């Protein structure tokens, strides 16, 4: 095993003095324990020199290194407390030096301790470290390259030419995993410069945050030349540890862009063509953000690296963006439009992060929603800029709103800003998605209120003052407030710090109640927290939000007035209700929250719902803006679920979908219909009536699109039209519209017979799934064999999802075993999605539940220390559970393995809440829905 040679160590000392410990020093047992979850404020790092040698020999997948940390003492102390986890640190080679103008003093080390609770590594010094003095600490360490997809870990792939396994190494340090790769002060408020040296075999390339400065031959301990080299990188700008990144690999790369910044996209040689889209997008998006933000970043290069094994979709490391390979590859002739949109969105998110999170990051993870929210929202603007025809401002905003409306309506949700005390709590902020979606939609609300000019100019001003710092972004809210007032976009009594606080510090979101007086034409407006389980209202805190009020009516039809006419205010947590005068004439409907500008639901009185329903179920339905049509569908479905309105009204509103031609209302409706599909599929008679009703709604649109019998070239069809056909066709086959089922079976059988796949790319999920659902063992084996030869990850995901559609219990049981044991074709990072596919299957649900119960220990071992991954198997099951016996079985498992699931208590509580909601819904509403739909199917509304 290679060791770091003496020639690379720091050597120069002007005058060296050495202090050793006296015999009177107290024993270790007398050292005071430090138990706070944040590092002491006594020391601030100023610079890291990090040297790491990586061995990628299959028998020695390890790394060894040294780190030299220059730090300043802010408060006199007798120890150095930093982070280290799962590292073997050579205590005999710890060096501590104090630097003065004319001499360097070596400090002796009294003792070292590891405190596992917070990953502290504590070095006790013989003499105190003095305030305002500068020191350097050198630590030598080693560890195996782990397989857990965080820290410094190994990944592999099979070379398609030689059939050999190729190894590579890569980092994933966000949120707090740099400590697994090297000892460091692993908190986001410490921004320092890094000088990185990577030692590796000369046949590999090495990448890091900064450009490569030079390569040097590495010598062995006996000064003999070796096949190893040092790749020495330029010094970085100040960055936090979680943005440090490096990789050793033998990928190929493509240069792209001509924008002053060199973009290199690195991936396996055999998939280089599938990296083209990301290579093209990154420089275009970088230029867009640079042009509107006017805050230049000191980059000379940005690398994008596609990693075969990667837990997240991507990571925005400074100058070295890493992607999960199968999430970002795109094949022009095989990947779908949905995949194109996904790639574009992820790249936009990571490029936006170079400003929001990298140029200025948050001081602590409590406010991570700010950088994730900004990156998500700015990515929407970036994608819209590149592809205005995608209607991304509407479509993706609605997707995010729906995500928030679902998860944040549970009693066990969490506020955007909350105290964070552990890595598990930090990870939870990324798992739930609220930091991304709710954060983004809160920023969208601010943007729509203050306008483009105020929004953009305020961000520019903020970056000019705060670049390369860790901050809480509060000064940005102040700047936005001042500018918005000067442009008369907000009243003087309105302050964005207060508004942001009301939305960020409280759990949930509001339900706005609008009660009209049809004699005076006024409306009484109140607010309350919306909860899916309304019985929880008595135990939930009485929150109050500052709510921007916008509305229009049937006569005015103004859906573009974003300046709030009023604010629903708060006096502390006391809600202040208001009466609005002359909101609409007696026979006119009124709609509040135009274009869903605010993140809240609206509950109208019964008469207003009737007026809205009457317009929707008429030729004048387009009088209502498409986003507000989607809003009415979503609100009516969810308000009925929670018991606020009757399902008769909701199902009458859904009737209008037979006329609807736009993608977005259908997208919203099908999401809500999916929830009903989940809870009804175990009740055969009701489910048959329900799917007949959905088919009745779908059929006019399916026929107008020619369903699966399309004739036009998809290359000549708009993106949004393709997306719409994709969702309508999938559901048409799902609810067994005969034309769709027969066409899918014919497509599949023709492919089997000719071995030429002519199935339209964007309709393959519908075709594959339907063919497997109605097919036999030979059909399943044909698709499984097809998967084994695939080299396009997006098509692999489609096939894996389709293999879950079989109604043969034996096939599904065997597939469950393959999911968690055949990592060649189903990687660890994709196993949870495959498991979820089986849980959604009527036959597969019970098999999946039993498999989890019988293999939970093996699955925990399979996922390793990333315990959150095993919780991804719980929620898909929870969504399908409606019966008491299934509920009891899963609760027994969770209780039996509470030590296993305890670290992610919130995820488990959410799953338990989902189950209870489903069980209660069946008891309260199944018969009502059954009765209403029975009449609807017998007496449909004529077209």
UniProtKB/TrEMBL annotation:
Pfam families the UniProt entry points to: ERAP1_C (PF11838), Peptidase_M1 (PF01433), Peptidase_M1_N (PF17900)
EC number: 3.4.11.-
Cofactors (names): Zn(2+)
Source superkingdom: Eukaryota
Active site (catalytic residues): 350
GO CC annotations, alphabetized: cytoplasm; extracellular space; plasma membrane; side of membrane
Predominant localisation class: membrane
Membrane topology reported for the UniProt record: Lipid-anchor; GPI-anchor
Enzyme's top EC category: hydrolase
UniProt KW keywords: Aminopeptidase, Cell membrane, Disulfide bond, Glycoprotein, GPI-anchor, Hydrolase, Lipoprotein, Membrane, Metal-binding, Metalloprotease, Protease, Signal, Zinc
Catalysed conversion reaction: Release of an N-terminal amino acid, Xaa-|-Yaa- from a peptide, amide or arylamide. Xaa is preferably Ala, but may be most amino acids including Pro (slow action). When a terminal hydrophobic residue is followed by a prolyl residue, the two may be released as an intact Xaa-Pro dipeptide
Cofactor binding notes: Binds 1 zinc ion per subunit.
Binding-site list for Zn(2+): 349, 353, 372
SUPFAM superfamilies per UniProt: Leukotriene A4 hydrolase N-terminal domain, Metalloproteases ('zincins'), catalytic domain
Protein name: Aminopeptidase
């Amino acid at each position: 095993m290679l060791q770091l040679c003496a020639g690379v160590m720091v050597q120069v000392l002007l005058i060296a003095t050495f202090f050793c410990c006296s015999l009177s020093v107290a024993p270790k047992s007398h050292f005071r324990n430090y138990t706070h979850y944040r590092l002491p404020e006594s020391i601030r790092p100023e610079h890291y020199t990090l040297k790491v040698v990586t061995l990628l020999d299959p028998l020695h997948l390890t790394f060894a290194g040294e780190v030299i940390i220059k730090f300043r003492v802010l408060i006199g102390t007798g120890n150095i407390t930093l982070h280290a986890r799962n590292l073997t640190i050579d205590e005999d080679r710890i060096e501590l030096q104090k630097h003065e103008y004319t001499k360097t003093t070596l400090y002796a080390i009294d003792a070292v301790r590891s405190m596992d609770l917070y990953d502290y590594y504590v070095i006790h010094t013989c003499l105190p470290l003095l305030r305002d003095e500068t020191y350097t600490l050198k630590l030598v360490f080693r560890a195996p390259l782990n397989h857990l997809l965080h820290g410094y870990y190994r990944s592999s792939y099979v070379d398609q030419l030689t059939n050999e396994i190729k190894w590579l190494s890569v980092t994933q340090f966000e949120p707090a995993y740099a400590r697994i790769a090297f000892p460091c002060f692993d908190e986001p408020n410490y921004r320092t410069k890094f000088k990185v040296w990577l030692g590796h075999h000369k046949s590999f390339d090495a990448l890091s945050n900064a450009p490569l400065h030079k390569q040097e031959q590495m010598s062995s301990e006996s000064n003999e030349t070796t096949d190893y080299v040092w790749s020495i990188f330029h010094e970085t700008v100040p960055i936090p540890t979680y943005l440090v990144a490096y990789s050793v690999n033998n990928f190929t790369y493509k240069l792209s862009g001509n924008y002053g910044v060199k973009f290199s996209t690195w991936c396996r040689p055999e998939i280089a063509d599938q990296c083209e889209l990301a290579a093209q997008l990154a420089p275009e998006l970088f230029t867009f953000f640079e042009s509107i933000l006017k805050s230049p970043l000191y980059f000379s290069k940005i690398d994008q690296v596609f990693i075969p094994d990667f837990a997240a979709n991507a990571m925005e490391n400074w100058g070295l963006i890493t992607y999960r390979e199968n999430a970002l590859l795109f094949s022009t002739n095989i990947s779908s439009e949905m995949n194109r949109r996904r790639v574009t969105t992820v790249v936009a998110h990571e490029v936006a992060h170079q400003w929001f999170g990298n140029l200025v990051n948050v001081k602590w993870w409590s406010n991570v929603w700010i950088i994730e929210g900004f990156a998500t929202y700015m990515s929407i603007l970036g994608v819209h800029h590149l592809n205005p025809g995608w209607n991304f401002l509407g479509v993706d905003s609605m997707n995010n709103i729906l995500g928030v409306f679902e998860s944040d309506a549970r009693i066990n949700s969490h506020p955007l800003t909350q105290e964070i005390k552990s890595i598990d709590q930090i990870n939870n902020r990324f798992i739930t998605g609220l930091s991304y979606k709710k954060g983004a939609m809160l920023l969208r609300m601010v943007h729509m209120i203050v306008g483009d000019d105020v929004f953009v100019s305020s961000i520019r001003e903020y970056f000019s003052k705060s670049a390369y710092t860790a901050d809480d972004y509060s000064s940005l809210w102040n700047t936005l407030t001042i500018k918005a007032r000067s442009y008369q976009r907000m009243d003087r009594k309105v302050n964005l710090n207060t508004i942001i606080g009301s939305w960020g510090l409280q759990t949930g979101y509001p339900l706005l109640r609008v009660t009209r007086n049809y004699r005076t034409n006024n409306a009484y407006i109140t607010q309350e927290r919306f909860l899916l389980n309304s019985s929880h209202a008595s135990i939930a805190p009485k929150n109050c939000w500052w709510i921007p009020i916008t509305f229009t009516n049937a006569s005015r039809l103004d859906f573009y007035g974003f300046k709030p006419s009023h604010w629903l205010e708060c006096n502390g947590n006391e809600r202040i209700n208001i009466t609005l005068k002359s909101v609409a004439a007696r026979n006119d409907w009124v709609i509040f929250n135009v274009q869903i500008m605010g993140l809240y639901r609206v509950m109208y009185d019964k008469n207003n719902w009737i007026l809205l329903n009457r317009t929707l179920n008429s030729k004048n339905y387009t009088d209502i803006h498409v986003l507000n049509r989607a809003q009415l569908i979503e609100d009516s479905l969810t308000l009925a679920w929670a018991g606020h309105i009757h399902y008769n009204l909701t199902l009458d509103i859904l009737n209008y979908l037979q006329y609807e031609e736009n993608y977005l209302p259908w997208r919203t409706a099908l999401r809500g219909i999916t929830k009903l599909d989940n809870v009804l599929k175990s009740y055969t008679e009701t489910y048959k009536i329900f799917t007949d009703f959905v088919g009745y709604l779908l059929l006019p649109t399916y026929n107008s699109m020619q369903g699966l019998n399309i004739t036009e070239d998809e290359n000549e069809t708009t993106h949004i039209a393709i997306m719409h056909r994709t969702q309508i066709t999938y559901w048409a086959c799902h609810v067994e519209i005969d034309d769709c089922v027969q066409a899918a079976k014919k497509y599949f059988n023709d492919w089997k017979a000719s071995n030429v796949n002519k199935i339209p790319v964007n309709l393959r999920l519908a075709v594959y799934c339907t063919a497997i659902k109605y097919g036999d063992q030979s059909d399943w084996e044909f698709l499984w064999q097809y998967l084994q030869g695939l080299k396009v990850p997006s098509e692999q995901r489609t096939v894996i999802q389709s293999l879950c559609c079989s109604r043969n219990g034996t096939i599904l049981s065997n597939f469950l075993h393959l999911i968690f044991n055949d990592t060649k074709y189903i990687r660890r990072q994709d196993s949870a999605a495959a498991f979820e596919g089986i849980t959604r299957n009527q036959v597969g649900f019970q098999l999946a539940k039993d498999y989890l119960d019988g293999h939970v220990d093996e699955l925990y071992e399979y996922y390793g220390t990333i315990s959150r991954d095993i919780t991804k198997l719980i929620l898909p099951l929870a969504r399908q559970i409606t019966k008491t016996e299934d509920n009891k079985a899963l609760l027994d498992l969770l209780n039996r393995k509470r030590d296993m699931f305890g670290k992610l208590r919130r995820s488990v509580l959410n799953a338990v809440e989902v189950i209870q909601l489903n069980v209660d819904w069946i008891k309260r509403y199944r018969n009502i829905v059954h009765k209403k739909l029975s009449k609807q199917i017998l007496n449909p509304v004529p077209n």
